Amino acid sequence: MRSIETEEKAVTIRLTGEPMPSRAELMRLVRLALEARGFPAWEDTEAECFTAGEEILVIARPGERRRAFFFDDMDALLTAVSGSIGDGAVYAVPEGYVLIPAPGKAPPILREFGREMRLPPLWEVFARERGWRIVPEGGTSVLANAFRQE
């Protein structure tokens, strides 16, 4: 038996006597529940599952993945931030550099020199623990000014 409650920012699904669905199946159920009520599908979804005997409770809500840009080298990163007006944080990862702009601040020049990507919710915590952050939040304007050519 399935019982589904849907609001714009939350979907709860109660399953009785059914096996735990796969993540893909859960995301499909959430999307269908939103569409059935006329709400737009979420770009990303976070879900928690709880079990008790024969019952499963799923609580889903919009995900909060941060938007980021990957740069292969420092030259591309510096060119992009020198032409942008946004602020963000920069991480030196083993393959290159990741810039996480301030929410709502992603000037088009970032896409010209970097590749847009979505980060999992705890990626920034993971990266800070490994010492990858080289410019803190709000520091890209300082970085751009330091390397701006007159």
Structure description:
It is a single chain. The protein starts with a strand and ends with a helix. It has helices at 23-36, 74-82, 109-113, 123-129, 140-147; strands spanning 2-7, 10-16, 45-52, 55-62, 66-71, 88-93, 96-101, 115-119, 133-135. The chain is built from five helices and nine strands. The protein is an alpha+beta fold and 150 residues long. The radius of gyration is 20 Å and the shape is elongated. A hairpin with a 2-residue loop joins strand 1 and strand 2. A five-stranded antiparallel β-sheet has the order 8-5-7-6-9. It has a four-stranded antiparallel β-sheet with strand order 1-2-4-3, covered by helices on one side.
The strand order across the widest sheet is 8-5-7-6-9
Q: Number of helix segments?
A: 5
Query: Main sheet, how many strands, which sense, barrel?
Result: 5 strands, antiparallel
Following the backbone from N to C, one meets helices and strands in this order, namely EEHEEEHEEHEHEH
- Rg over C-alpha atoms, rounded to the nearest angstrom: 20 Å
Uncertain residue segments: none
Going by helix content, strand content and strand pairing, the class is alpha+beta
Strand percentage:
35-45%
What best-fitting shape do the alpha-carbon axes yield? elongated
Total strand segments: 9
Average of the residue pLDDT scores: 87
Distance between the termini: 68 Å
User: Roughly how much helix do the residues carry, as a percent range?
Assistant: 25-40%
